[in-house]
Amino acid sequence: IYQNAQLFVNPFIIDTRSPKIDSLLPSVTLLNNINQDSLFFIDIEVSESCDTALLPSFNFVEPLGFSSLSSNTGLSFWQSDSVYRAVFDIDDNDEIIDTLKVSIDNIHDLAGNEVLVDTFLLDLEIDTKEPLLIDYQLNTSLLNRQNIGSNSLEVLLTFDKKMNVIDDPELRFDPSSISPSLLEYSSSSQWLTDTTCLIYYDLLNSSDEAFNIDLLLDSLKDLSGNSPSPNSIENVLNIDTKRPVPITINPLNNPIYDGNTGASLFEVEVIYSEPMDINQIPVLDVIHQVDLSSSISYNAFEGVWQNDTVFIAKFNVYDENIEVDSID
What we know:
Blueprint: E1 21-26, E2 30-31, E3 40-46, E4 57-62, E5 69-71, E6 77-78, E7 83-90, E8 96-97, E9 100-105, E10 119-122, E11 125-127, E12 133-138, E13 142-144, E14 149-159, E15 172-174, H1 178-181, E16 183-185, E17 190-191, E18 196-203, E19 209-216, E20 232-240, E21 246-251, E22 262-272, E23 296-298, E24 304-305, E25 310-317
Parallel strand pairs: 2-11, 13-20
Antiparallel strand pairs: 1-3, 3-7, 4-9, 5-7, 6-7, 8-11, 9-10, 12-14, 14-18, 15-19, 16-18, 17-18, 19-20, 21-22, 22-25, 23-25, 24-25
């Protein structure tokens, strides 16, 4: 007895074709020291549906010893059965990498076929090397009223990397109130080379003072968008456009009487609002509606600084047998 032939439709399939990687799409094509704290990932697109219970293994082939990216399997996941998002932690190793080759394994299709292992050139550049400030020069450390005008402050900066010279070089200041209340950016500023810039600021005609000013360099960038290191020059500038004023004038003898007649016997204490240059002797005048030049005269050679804010002025007094008041 022979069995009648029967046809069973699609009782099994044959799948010996391995899946392949169609594309690798990084979230950015340049890693620098600005975006290195952001979430970085690479989407792996596979040619067919895969076993999503398995986690792909991502391997860096070139350059040897590369360690700036490390897999974060806790955040990585399958977006679909054919797209895996591999998330990475970024380590700032202060390096420049133009070419990055990778390989990927531990991907299986639903039939259990493992992915064809190959080496891929990743569309990614890494530049986490900050441009180093190797030299700086200021034309002065103190700006005063004599400097009011154009291009009063000159700052020459030189870096060890090529910089972004498309944007005009500019600084920020700490405290930030310095600009624009005292300093105004000058259009004369320019890049002299791709590593050196000369920055000018005008000193404005205002009455103010600031000391131990820091210059902030974070608005300057290299070709990869990295800010300089160090990103500030500390305590290099002082500005004082505030005129000193005498806050107190005290005659040490009042009124002037016969006992004050003679050379330098009448003294006046002058107290100033801020420390003064004690190598300079102030000039004092006696003002009254009556001409007193024959009765009292300032003896500048005998005046003396008690400290940097207190000056003792001395006057010669002549007995002219007069009586006046309200003398300035």
